Every structure is written in structure tokens, then in C-alpha cells.
């Protein structure tokens, strides 16, 4: 029971140990299986000697366990089982015969009945199983099942058994067909007969019968073929023996070979008959005992000859074939001697016959291929050599057969081992011929070239690397001649790679390069260096010199000479990049220093108390820095526009005087002249490249500078002079440095203007210039004529070149003013701040760069009063003493051609306290605070009720209301501190002191 499957053990467990029998239906019900599956299990248990069975009645069968040991059960138990398994009538209680359906389902034969229309009247489970039919069975479904005959051919639709019966009206009985289903195939015996209304098909599984029949047929054919082969042999003699080894018959040749009389051989035993052939009786006895063919070579005791003995068992004994093989044995012995020599060499050797099959292999061949000698002998050479290699070798063998052909040829290919590995080999093969000169095969001496191929592949990799890299690679012999160069080196040298081979290295390496190489070679020879590396100029045969980095080392060749292998890399771009980086680094350092100088100069300029002090400080600090050699400030002197040095640093007095003498005037071509004339910074990046006629080239030669920059010192349009900076650096004043140095001119100009403005405010005297301007607006080409009275009381700078002008206007003048805003180019807008009872208006005028105001402010002065009555104006200007009145007058006339200077007088405040108070306020307030204070005052911000709110004044100034509030609060605090704090005094007005 241990060999039973789980399903069979489950089925066996349904039976009671006491041997109580069960019917098929009872077992099927207990297992919840179909009757056919249950029947199959029970039948297999009977085969396993676990159950016994007996037919009961017409179609019933009972089963019981075999544990009881009884061959049969009492009839009472069998009767009970048959009664329990049969159908009973509840009314009568009588036992009926089982239905036909039960009979069909329990049948081991598949049965099906089909009507004429192809529908299935009935089909049992065995029929479905045999033909692999699921679901509804029909004749169409049956015809769709593939059927094959004994030859393996598919049976066509017309030749299928059912159709043949219906076509011929003759039954088909026990026809074997192979049924192919999804779960495999089986052989089925089909019987098809016609019925009254269709056909009846029965089928049985005959797979085992067919397989056994085929096996017997194959064995019979094999025996017949062996006997045929045996009979076809060209033999020397033949004997027949019975099962005991007694000779039954012998031919004449056997008798002559074995020497005894024929009569004496018949009836002799094997030992007696084959006494002259040593070992023959043992071969025959082994064949009789094993019932298998036995062969062997035996030496004749009285002759110097060898015979092959072949004993073949028969149904009645054995047949013995004797064939002389003396030549073959001698040949094999000779071959074995050669094999011994070859094996001593340890190299793979083989021999092929004329059909390319292995006739001989030594142990080395078996080790190389992984096949045993038995696996190779008789096999075609393609077992270990690819077909493409065979195709290459065949023409070489044919070439060996021609006249004047070499004795052997070489061929390389891969041997495929038993494990599928490809081993590269070199084969030296030759053709083998017999005594008549006919080709009987070929032999080869095989060498494993795996290591050599690996070296070749490694060499190829190096060659590819050498040819792929962009660096130049070269090899020199002991005489410094090129023996190898790659394409990159040839390209760098400007020659063809083949042309440079054999040339001396000096054609591309100059003497300096050669000297450095020799020095490094000495260090390499002394083992103080493993490799040498340096940068040098490389001189191509045709082209510009290159900056290269070379790395090389020495090597010893096989002949003991020393050569050199090197790599040359074009590092011109890298060197240039490093130089560029170095220049950038130096430039950044200079910029950092310049930036520090600019900040230092700016701080010093703001702290300076006089113009002379500011200018001297600027020149000294610039000249004292590492970035510049010397600096100086020039100014225009005289009416002819000549230039002179005002202050300088980094130059001694003779050089300063010499410099003044070399300067051109305003109309000159030099950088200083252009800066004064155009009021824009001018640079000279490399004075040595200037034309010889350029004065700055002479200056550079005299004072030893390369670059220079001339920066105009201006503020609000006023020109204070020109700052000049000189350095020995090339292209110094570019981009960032130019912007930084140019900013110095703006800072110095602002500082000088502030100092002069403070000096003017603090001065005890002011120069008042009174101009009369008839028809003031006629020069502006405006259509509107001004009528009434217009007064400009205060002008306040806001931001940049924008100003606010506060004044009063009569009613008619206010109308004219509103119309003139659109026509006067530097007026932008006007608004009324307040109007009194008489109709006079206080106004706020937005203007941009009003010419007279800008000019006077730049000179440290201010516009004291402007009054216009019916188009005729009067300008009163206050400027510091010592100003060029003529230049001022020319500036006023440029804006108003009809202007006329009517008075020029020196005035001073009648009470010094007022001057001191105004001086303190001017000093304490910033520009923003002063603008906020004046704008608020003149716009009516301090009146009650206010004529303008803080938002209005902020909008006029173009700032945010919180910003205005911050400025006005700080300005108010400073004014009241000056007025009421310590030292504050009562103020008073101005008086004329002509």
C-alpha cells in the first residue's frame, strides 16, 4: 500500500476491513465521483492486489478488500451487496435489473450512437475520454478530432471511419487510429456499424498493444539488419555452434585456418575448435552467455597472423565469423608507436579519414576538446570545428595536392569543446596517402594559441588606444629615429605618418628640447626618475610652433638597445587659458585695490575742506596705490583754452614742469584735450601702439607708462578740471576698472561743488549780478506773450536735474504761465498752491535743467530773484566772489540772447548772526532735507489752514509721503536746534554794501 497514490488510498479506505463488498455506485457515491472515474480507480486497486472483484447479475459488479485472504466471499454477502446496489421499487420491494445507462457507463469500451442528422443519441464517459470530447457530443465534434494512421499521415475527411461506413454501407471493424488531443495522443481501435436511424461507434484504447507491436517490429528489423550485415561481410571463414558451444558446421576456409580435419571440428567444443586462435574461445563463450555480439582480435599460434573473431548469437546458438586482419593490426601497432611519440610531445594530434571522420586522436586532443576518445573516433570533424572553419580548411587541403605544394599548411580557427567553449588553435596539417598515392585522409598537429590570441588582442587594444587618443604618441630607437608614431603625432608634426618613420627626432624637436630630453634621459638611466615630463615649444615641419607638454620614459628592446616612448600633448589652449586666468587674477587684484582706492578717495574727498585739499588728497592716494604710477589734475587756463597741471602726485617738480610743457590745448588730439572738450572719460590702453604723431605716445615714452585715463571732474554741468591716472599695466582701464575710476571724477566734482557752495554761504560777501532781459520769452520761439507780473521766489533741487520753482503771479500772468508750460522746453507742469483775495496766485512749477539755474548752482551760487513784468524780466544772481563774471554772462546770454548785465556789486549781511545761522543750517541739512524744507515752506505746508498737505509736497518732490515726513521732521529739528539751541541768535535781513 505504500506505493499507492493518495487517490487510490482514499478509494481503498471506503471498504470495511471485514471484507464487506460494495458496488461501483456505492463507492462512487461515497467518493462523490463519476462512475467511470470510480471504476478506473477500483480496477487499478485490483491490479495492485488490494481489492478483489466479481461480476454479479447481468451487468453489476461488486468489490471487496483482499485483507481477508479469501479468494471468494460467501454468496450471502455478494447477494446483499448486489441487492444494496440495485434499484428497488418502493411499492413492491422487488429488485430490478440495472438501467442501460449504468451498463454503458460501466463499460470499458467507449460507445456512442449518432442519428442520421449527426446528433448524438448516447455516448458514455469512456467514449468522451478516448476522443477528448467535452460538453455536447455530436458527429461534427467527433469528425473534428485529428486522426493519424500508422504511417503518421493525417486521415483525410473522406477516409475517416464514420464517413467511409456511411459512404460504402460497409462496417469498419477494429481499425487502429491515433487520436491527438490536448493532453497527448493514444491509439484507439474503432468499430463503426450502421443502425436503423444512424451509426453506432465503439472504441477501445489499444495504445499498449500498438506500442508493443511496434517495439517487436523494430527488434525484428534490427536483428534482420544485423544478420544481413553479417552475411554481407567478406569473410575468411564461418562456423555455426549450438547453445552449448558445440560446433555444428564449418566451411572449408575455417577448416584450413584451424588446421584439424573437418570431421574432427564438427562436434568439437569451443576450446578444442579455437585452440590455435588465442582468446577466440573466450569471445565465443562470452557471446553465448551474454546473448550479445562479441568481437576481438586474436593471434594465430602457428602463423604470424591476426584474425578478427566476431561471434553473433542466434536463436539456436551462435555464428562465428573469422577475418584476417594482420595488416590492420600491424598498422595499428605502428600507429601506436607514433602515438607514443606524439603523446610524449604533449601536443594534440589527430587523424581524419577520407570522409573527414576521426580515425585517431591522442590524449592531448581529448583534454583540449573535453570529449573522450570513444566519443571522437568515427565522428565527423565538424563535431569540434565550426562549419566555416571546415570551409576554409578544405581549399588548403586541395592546395596540398597540387604540384610544388608545401608539405603542410597552417590554419587558425576555434575548437568547440564539449562544454561549448571556443578555444583558439593553430593547426599544422598535412595530407595522408596510401601506397598507391590515393588520399586516405589528413592529419593535424594542433596548438592551443589562447595566450597568443590574448596577447594579440591586448596589442590590438593598445593600438586602438594609441590611434584613438588625441595626444601624439611616438617611439624612438637608440639613435633617436622614429619607429612608431600615431596619427595625432603626425598631424601635430605636420607630416604624413609613414614619411616620418626613420627620420631623426630633431626634425620636430628643437635643440633646447633635445637638451632637456637628454638631461631627463640621464636621470631615467640612473633610476632617479620613472618618467619625465615638461613643457616646451614643438616645431612642426610646416606650421606655427606649438606649446606642448611631453611625457616620456625609456625601454629596453629585445636586442638590448634602449629606446624612448613618449606622449606629446598640445597644451597651447591650456597655457593660454592659464595665462588668461593669471591676467584675470591680476586684474581682479587690481580691481580690488582700485575699488579700495576709490572708496578711500571718496571718503577723503567728502572730508576735504577746500578744493586744493581735495585735489591734492586724490592725486596722492592714487599715486600711492600699487595699481597706478602717478596721477595729476589739469585745468584750462587763459582765454585760448590752454591746459596746465594744477596738482600732481608721483612726479617730482621737474617732471611736473615737463608735463605741463607737453600738454596740448583744449583743441588738441590727446586724451586730456578730448576729455575737456567732450566732457567724457578718455583712455589709452597701450600707448606704445599709438601713432607717432599722437602726443600721448611721447608722454608715455617720457614718463614710462602703458595705459592712461583722463576723467573730467564735473558736477551739474560745471567743469572743475580733468583727473589723469597712469599705470604700467597694459589694457588696464577696461570695463569694471574704467567704471570705478570714472566714478572718482563724479565724487571729486561733487565734493568740490559742495565745498564751494559752503564757502559761498559762509562768506561775509557775495557777488550779486543783476541782469535785465527784455522780451525774455521771445528767444524761446513761443506763441504766447506774458502779461502781468510773475515772480520766481525760490528754486529747489529735487532729484537729478529736476527742480521745483515757487513763485507768485498776477491773474493775467497766471493765465499766460499756464499756456507757456506747453511751449517752454524745460518747463514740465505748473499748479496753483494758493490764491489771495486780490486774485494773485502762489504757484509751483516743475522744471528740468533750467539753464541759468544749473549754471549758477554749478558755480556755487544761487538765483536770488527773478521778476517778469509784461514779458520783460530781471534776473538777480548771487555767486561767490572771484567767479568769472564774463563766463557767467556768456552762459546767461546763451539762454537769453537779449540779456544785459546792468549791475555788479559786492554785498554782505548787515548782521553776522544771520549769516552764521544760515551757514549752520546749510551745513547741517542734507540735500534731501533742504529740498523738503524749502518745498514745504513755499508750497504753503506751514500756513494755517495748510495750502498743501504732506502728500501734495511728497508728490511734488517725487517721493513717498513717509519719506517726505521723515525729511521734514529732521529738517525742522535741525532748524529749531540752530535757532533756539545754544548759540542761537535772532536773525535779520540783507543790506547793500556797495
From TrEMBL:
It comes from the Archaea. One of its GO terms (biological process) is regulation of DNA-templated transcription. Residues 334-404, 458-503 form the PAS domain. Residues 409-461 form the PAC domain. CDD domains: PAS. Keywords: Plasmid, Transcription, Transcription regulation. Pfam families: BAT (PF15915), GAF_2 (PF13185), HTH_10 (PF04967), PAS (PF00989), PAS_4 (PF08448). It comes from Halorubrum lacusprofundi (strain ATCC 49239 / DSM 5036 / JCM 8891 / ACAM 34). This is PAS/PAC sensor protein.
Amino acid at each position: 500500500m505504500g506505493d499507492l497514490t493518495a487517490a487510490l488510498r482514499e478509494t481503498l479506505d471506503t471498504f470495511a476491513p471485514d471484507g464487506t463488498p460494495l458496488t461501483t455506485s456505492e463507492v462512487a457515491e461515497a467518493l462523490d465521483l463519476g462512475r467511470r472515474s470510480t471504476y478506473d480507480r477500483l480496477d487499478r486497486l485490483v491490479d495492485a492486489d488490494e481489492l478483489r472483484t466479481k461480476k454479479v447479475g447481468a451487468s453489476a459488479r461488486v468489490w471487496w478488500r483482499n485483507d481477508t485472504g479469501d479468494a471468494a466471499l460467501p454468496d450471502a454477502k455478494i447477494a446483499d451487496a448486489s441487492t444494496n446496489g440495485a434499484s428497488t421499487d418502493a411499492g413492491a420491494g422487488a429488485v430490478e435489473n440495472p438501467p442501460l445507462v449504468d451498463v454503458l457507463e460501466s463499460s470499458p469500451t467507449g460507445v456512442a450512437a449518432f442519428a442520421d442528422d449527426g446528433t448524438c443519441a448516447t455516448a458514455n464517459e469512456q467514449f468522451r475520454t478516448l476522443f477528448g470530447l467535452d460538453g455536447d457530443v455530436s458527429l461534427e465534434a467527433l469528425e473534428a478530432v485529428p486522426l493519424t494512421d500508422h504511417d503518421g499521415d493525417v486521415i483525410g475527411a473522406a477516409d475517416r471511419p464514420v464517413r467511409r461506413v456511411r459512404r460504402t454501407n460497409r462496417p469498419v471493424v477494429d481499425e487502429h487510429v491515433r487520436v491527438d488531443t490536448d493532453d497527448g495522443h493514444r491509439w484507439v481501435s474503432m468499430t463503426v456499424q450502421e443502425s436503423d436511424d444512424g451509426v453506432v461507434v465503439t472504441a477501445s484504447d489499444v495504445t499498449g498493444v500498438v506500442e508493443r507491436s511496434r517495439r517487436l517490429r523494430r527488434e525484428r528489423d534490427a536483428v534482420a539488419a544485423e544478420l544481413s550485415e553479417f552475411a554481407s561481410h567478406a569473410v575468411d571463414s564461418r562456423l555455426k555452434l549450438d547453445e552449448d558451444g558445440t560446433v555444428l558446421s564449418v566451411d572449408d576456409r575455417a577448416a584450413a585456418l584451424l588446421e584439424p580435419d573437418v570431421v574432427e571440428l564438427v562436434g568439437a567444443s569451443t576450446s578444442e575448435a579455437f585452440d590455435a586462435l588465442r582468446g577466440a574461445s573466450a569471445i565465443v563463450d562470452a557471446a553465448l552467455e551474454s546473448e550479445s555480439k562479441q568481437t576481438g582480435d586474436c593471434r594465430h599460434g602457428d602463423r604470424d597472423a591476426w584474425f578478427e573473431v566476431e561471434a553473433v548469437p542466434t536463436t539456436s546458438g551462435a555464428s562465428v565469423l573469422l577475418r584476417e586482419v594482420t595488416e590492420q593490426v600491424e598498422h595499428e601497432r605502428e600507429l601506436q608507436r607514433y602515438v607514443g611519440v606524439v603523446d610524449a610531445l604533449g601536443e594534440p594530434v589527430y587523424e581524419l579519414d577520407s570522409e573527414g571522420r576521426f580515425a585517431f586522436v591522442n590524449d592531448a586532443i581529448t583534454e583540449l576538446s573535453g570529449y573522450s576518445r570513444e566519443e571522437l573516433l568515427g565522428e565527423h570533424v565538424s563535431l569540434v570545428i565550426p562549419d566555416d572553419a571546415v570551409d576554409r580548411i578544405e581549399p588548403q587541403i586541395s592546395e596540398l595536392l597540387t604540384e610544388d605544394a608545401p608539405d603542410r599548411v597552417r590554419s587558425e580557427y576555434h575548437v568547440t569543446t564539449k562544454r561549448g567553449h571556443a578555444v583558439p588553435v593553430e593547426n599544422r596539417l598535412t595530407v595522408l596517402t596510401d601506397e598507391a598515392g590515393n588520399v586516405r585522409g589528413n592529419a593535424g598537429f594542433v596548438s592551443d594559441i589562447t595566450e597568443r590570441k590574448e596577447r594579440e588582442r591586448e596589442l590590438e587594444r593598445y593600438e586602438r588606444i594609441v590611434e584613438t587618443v588625441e595626444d601624439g604618441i611616438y617611439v624612438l630607437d637608440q639613435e633617436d629615429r622614429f619607429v612608431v608614431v600615431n596619427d595625432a603625432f603626425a598631424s601635430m608634426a605636420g607630416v604624413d605618418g609613414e614619411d616620418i618613420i626613420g627620420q631623426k627626432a630633431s626634425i620636430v624637436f628643437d635643440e633646447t628640447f633635445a637638451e632637456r630630453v637628454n638631461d631627463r634621459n640621464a636621470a631615467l638611466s640612473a633610476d632617479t626618475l620613472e618618467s619625465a615630463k615638461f613643457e616646451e615649444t614643438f616645431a612642426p615641419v610646416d606650421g606655427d610652433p606649438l606649446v606642448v607638454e611631453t611625457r616620456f620614459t625609456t625601454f629596453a628592446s629585445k636586442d638590448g638597445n634602449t629606446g624612448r616612448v613618449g606622449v606629446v600633448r598640445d597644451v597651447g589652449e591650456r597655457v593660454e587659458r592659464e595665462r588668461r586666468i593669471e591676467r584675470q587674477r591680476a586684474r581682479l587684484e587690481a580691481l580690488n585695490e582700485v575699488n579700495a582706492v576709490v572708496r578711500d578717495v571718496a571718503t577723503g574727498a567728502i572730508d576735504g575742506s577746500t578744493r586744493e585739499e581735495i585735489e591734492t588728497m586724490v592725486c596722492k592716494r592714487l599715486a600711492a596705490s600699487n595699481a597706478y604710477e602717478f596721477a595729476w589734475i589739469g585745468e584750462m587756463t587763459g582765454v585760448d583754452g590752454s591746459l596746465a597741471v594744477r596738482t600732481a602726485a608721483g612726479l617730482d617738480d621737474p617732471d611736473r614742469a615737463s608735463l605741463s610743457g607737453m600738454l596740448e590745448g583744449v583743441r588738441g588730439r590727446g586724451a586730456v584735450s578730448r576729455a575737456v572738450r567732450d566732457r567724457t572719460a578718455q583712455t589709452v590702453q597701450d600707448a606704445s601702439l599709438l601713432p607717432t604723431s599722437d602726443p600721448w605716445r611721447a608722454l608715455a615714452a617720457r614718463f614710462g607708462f602703458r595705459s592712461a585715463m583722463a576723467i573730467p571732474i564735473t558736477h551739474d554741468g560745471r567743469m572743475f578740471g580733468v583727473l589723469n591716472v597712469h599705470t604700467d599695466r597694459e589694457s588696464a582701464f577696461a570695463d569694471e576698472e574704467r567704471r570705478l575710476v570714472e566714478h572718482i571724477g563724479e565724487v571729486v566734482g561733487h565734493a568740490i561743488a559742495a565745498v564751494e557752495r559752503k564757502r559761498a554761504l559762509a562768506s561775509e560777501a557775495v557777488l550779486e549780478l543783476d541782469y535785465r532781459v527784455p522780451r525774455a520769452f521771445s528767444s524761446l520761439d513761443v506763441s504766447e506773450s506774458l502779461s502781468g507780473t510773475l515772480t520766481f521766489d525760490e528754486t529747489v533741487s529735487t532729484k537729478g536735474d529736476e527742480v521745483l520753482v515757487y513763485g507768485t503771479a498776477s491773474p493775467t500772468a497766471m493765465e499766460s504761465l499756464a499756456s507757456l508750460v506747453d511751449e517752454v522746453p524745460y518747463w514740465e507742469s505748473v499748479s496753483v498752491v494758493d490764491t489771495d483775495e486780490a486774485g494773485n496766485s502762489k504757484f509751483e512749477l516743475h522744471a528740468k535743467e533750467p539753464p541759468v539755474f544749473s549754471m549758477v548752482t554749478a558755480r556755487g551760487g544761487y538765483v536770488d530773484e527773478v521778476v517778469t513784468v509784461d514779458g520783460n524780466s530781471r534776473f538777480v544772481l548771487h555767486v561767490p566772489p572771484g567767479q568769472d563774471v564774463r563766463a557767467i554772462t556768456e552762459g546767461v546770454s546763451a539762454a537769453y540772447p537779449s540779456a544785459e548785465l546792468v549791475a555788479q556789486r559786492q554785498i554782505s549781511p548787515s548782521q553776522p548772526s544771520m549769516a552764521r545761522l544760515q551757514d549752520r543750517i546749510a551745513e547741517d541739512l542734507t540735500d534731501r532735507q533742504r529740498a523738503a524744507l524749502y518745498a514745504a515752506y513755499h508750497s504753503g505746508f506751514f500756513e494755517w489752514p495748510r495750502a498743501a498737505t504732506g502728500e501734495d509736497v511728497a508728490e511734488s518732490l517725487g517721493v513717498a509721503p513717509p519719506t517726505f515726513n521723515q525729511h521734514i521732521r529732521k529738517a525742522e529739528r535741525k532748524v529749531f536746534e540752530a535757532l533756539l539751541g545754544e548759540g542761537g541768535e535772532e536773525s535779520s535781513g540783507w543790506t547793500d554794501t556797495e
